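A quick word before the example. In earlier lectures we treated sequence and structure as two separate objects. From today on, think of them as two lines of the same record. Here is Flagellar biosynthetic protein FliR written that way.
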Amino acid sequence: MQLLELLPAFLLVFVRLTAFFVTAPIFSTRSIPAVFKIGLSFFIAFIAFPLVKANHVIPVDWTYVYLVIKEVLTGLLLGFLAALFLAAVQVAGSIIDMMLGLAMASVVDPLTGTQAPLMGNFKYILTMLFILSANGHHLLIQGVLSSYQVVPLDRWFSGMSDGTLSTFLIEKFSYMFMSGMLLAAPLVSSLFVIDLALGIMAKTVPQMNIFVVGMPVKILAGFLILVVVFPGYFFVMTRLLEVLFSAMARMIEIMGAVP
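And the structure line, produced from the sequence above:
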C-alpha cells in the first residue's frame, strides 16, 4: 500500500489524539505549550498507526470531512469525560471554601488560567500529582488508544441518534456533583457543628462579638479537620480514578456499538 493511500487514515488517528489532548486532564494545561501537545499527538499517532486497522482505503472526498468531525468529537468526548470526573475535586473545594468563608479568596489556577477556589485549587494540584505518581497519564493514553479497536476510523460512532451517549454523559455529570458533595461531606458536616456551637455561644454570651471570633475559629477548625481527614483523601482518589477508567471503557463501548 502506498504512502499516499495511508496518509488519510494517519491524519484521522492524529486528529483524534490531538482533540483528546486538548481536553484531557494533565495534557490540556496551559503550562504545556501547544507545540508540545501537537508533537506528542503526532509521535503517538505515528507509533500507534500500525495497530489501527481500517476496513479499506479511506478516500479523500466529502465523506472524509464527516470522518474528521467524528474523530474530533471522539477525542473531545473522551477527554471531556476524564476532565469531568476530576472537576469533582474543584466542586468539593468550592463547597469547602463557602463553608470556611474563603469563597471570595479565589486564586488564578496555573493549570487552566482561570479563577479557582482556594481549597479546590489546592486539592486539584494534589490530585494531578497523585495521577502522575500512579501513572494515570499512561492509562489515559492507553484508554484513547484502545478506542481505535472499538471505534473504527471509517465509520461514524453509534449512540448519538438513540440518545445512549447523551444519557451516559448526563449520568456522569450528575455523578461528578455527587462525588464533589461526598468529598466535601466530612469537612462540611464538621463545620456545620461548629456553626451551631457558635450560634449557641452567641445566644448565651451576647457580649462576645461572634462575627469577629467566629471567622478565625472556623478557619482554624477547618484546617485542623482537613489535616485529620487528609490521609483518606488519596484512598478516595484511587476509587475515583477506577470509576473514571471504567467510565471511559463504557463510553468507548457505547460509541463502538453496532447500531
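Notice the following. The chain has eight helices and two strands. We will return to this example when we discuss secondary structure assignment.
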